[in-house]
Amino acid sequence: VQLVESGGDLVQPGGSLRLSCAASGFTFSQYWMYWVRQAPGKGLEWVSVISSGSGRTASADSVKGRFTISRDNTKNVLYLQMNSLKPEDTAVYYCACPHALDAWGQGTQVTVSS
Are 89 and 110 in contact (CB under 8 A)? Predict the structure, then answer.
């Protein structure tokens, strides 16, 4: 099982980024997938979740209306579209299948700063 995130960057407040997570080594389409983040000096925070067939999604209140989770099961890729970014969104972002597979990526750094 391998999860590889990409797309993190330094962005100004109000900007946008799209994170990607390439999955391999398992049947991606069969699993619910998560984005989780960890801000400097803080614990893990759940961000968004998407069902195996994309029919159901949910997001934390802190990102609701700004972040959108999606997936392409034909390409085995998970996405997180992040709009209206705030400094408090600064964190390392991980894609994960934490419950069924206990699988985590290495993370990608998102820094929101002027």
Answer: yes
